[in-house]
Every structure is written in C-alpha cells, then in structure tokens.
Amino acid sequence: MRTNDANNYIVGQISRTVFGEVRRAASTKTSRSFLDRIFVSFSDLRGETVKAAKGADKLNGGIGKAEKGSQDLADGLTDAREGAASCPRGSRPSTRAPVTSRTARGRSRTARGRSPAG
C-alpha cells in the first residue's frame, strides 16, 4: 500500500506507523516461529543422538561377546584336535554294550537271582 502525503499528512503518518508495526510484528513472529522450530529440531536431534549412542554401546557389547565366543570356540577346537591327536592311531569303536546297558542287564539278572557274571 502506498500513501499520498499530499492528501493527508496525518493519515500518511498513521499508515506508515501501522504498517511499520505490522511488518515488525510479522518479522518478529516469523523469527520466533523459525527459532522455535530450530530449538525443537535441536531437541529432537539430541534425543536421537542419545538413542544412537545407546545403540552403539549395545552393539559394542555384542561385538565383545561375539569375539569372546569365537575365541572360546577356537580354544575348544584346539583342545579337540589335541585330544584326538593323543588317541592311538587305528582306534576302533568299542563293540561292547554301553555301560548303562550292561548295568541294566546286571540288575535284571540279580533281581531274578542269577549272578551278574553268569
């Protein structure tokens, strides 16, 4: 809007003052809104960064557990290899019945009054 100061000096002054105030208020409101959004964004960003840091800590802990587990596995495989190497070559599986089976047979014979050896 343009004012014509020649027509009315007072109306021109009032118009300039009113529009100046409107511009300042709009600018202030816009700035305030902009700054509010920035502060909210920083707050959100901080919250998400904290979440990311906690996730990184959990991941680090899991990696440490996986590392220990893989080392335990490697140690176990070494023990198994060394144990297998200490067995005599050409070892064959036992042809005898498992101990639990022999024990059960012995109990059965004893219950019937027979000697375990017979």
Describe this structure in words.
The protein has 118 residues and is mainly alpha-helical. The chain has helices spanning 9-86, 99-112. The longest helix has 78 residues, at 9-86. The protein is rod-shaped.
Provide a concise account of the structure shown.
Residues 58-118 are annotated as: Disordered. The chain has 118 residues and is an all-alpha fold. The chain is built from two helices and no strands.
SSE topology sketch:
Blueprint: H1 9-86, H2 99-112
Tags for this entry?
CsbD family protein, mainly alpha
What is the string of SSEs from the N terminus onward? HH
Shape descriptor reads rod-shaped
- Low-pLDDT runs: none
The number of helical segments is: 2
What kind of sheet is the major sheet? none
Helix content percent band: over 70%
How would you classify the helix and strand content by structural class?
A: mainly alpha
Give the termini separation: 124 Å
Note the beta-strand portion.
Answer: under 5%
